[in-house]
């Protein structure tokens, strides 16, 4: 049985509409949108939880517009809010704990904008500065649930050292980059240093 030209034209038009139907979110592409960073890497943390470093430039994109399958778009309403409440963030470069306990780290700035994946990340700047770790300094590492857990200073330093050398630290701790949230007193002495999550 032969189909009339009108019937064929109607079937072709219906097929074209089906192929260009929008997803529920209004997009026309079939690729799922890249997920936003998990809470530890985007939102400002509550006290005692791992602060977000946003340090990794996530996903397979290089972060340049038009690469990684996504075009540059406006950041969230205020992506600088992702850095709020984290406190100063530093990026460790080396450490030592033989004669006295210290680590060197660069300051960071929060990079934010339409060409930045997932609305922002901390980026190291300047020259490393020495941070002396005193007996009263709180040292915190992330546990298996990504919760900041206070640990012995030597456990902290050995874990940091392993991460800086690209090695696997002793269980149950892992490397999540080399960025840490620090709290300083009015004289600049280190009150606490907390490992940050970076996917």
Automatic annotation (TrEMBL):
State where composition is biased (Low complexity): 24-59
Chain residue ranges for the region called Disordered: 24-75
Give the keywords, sorted. Answer: Signal
- Leader sequence range is 1-21
What name goes with this protein?
Lipoprotein
Which species does this protein come from?
A: Kitasatospora cheerisanensis KCTC 2395
């Amino acid at each position: 049985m032969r189909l009339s030209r009108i019937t064929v034209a109607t079937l072709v038009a219906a097929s074209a509409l089906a192929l260009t139907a929008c997803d529920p979110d209004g997009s026309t592409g079939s690729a799922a949108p890249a997920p936003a960073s998990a809470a530890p890497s985007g939102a400002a943390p509550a006290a005692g939880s791992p602060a977000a470093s946003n340090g990794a430039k996530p996903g397979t994109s290089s972060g340049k517009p038009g690469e990684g399958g996504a075009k540059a778009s406006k950041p969230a309403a205020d992506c600088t809010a992702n850095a709020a409440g984290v406190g100063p963030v530093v990026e460790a470069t080396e450490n030592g704990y033989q004669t006295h306990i210290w680590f060197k780290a660069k300051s960071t700035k929060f990079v934010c904008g339409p060409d930045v994946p997932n609305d922002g990340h901390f980026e190291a700047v300047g020259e490393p500065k020495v941070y002396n770790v005193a007996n009263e300094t709180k040292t915190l590492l992330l546990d298996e649930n990504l919760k900041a857990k206070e640990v012995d200073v030597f456990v902290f330093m050995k874990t940091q050292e392993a991460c800086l050398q690209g090695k696997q630290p002793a269980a149950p701790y892992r490397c999540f980059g080399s960025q840490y949230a620090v709290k300083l007193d009015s004289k600049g002495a280190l009150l606490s240093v907390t490992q940050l999550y970076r996917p």
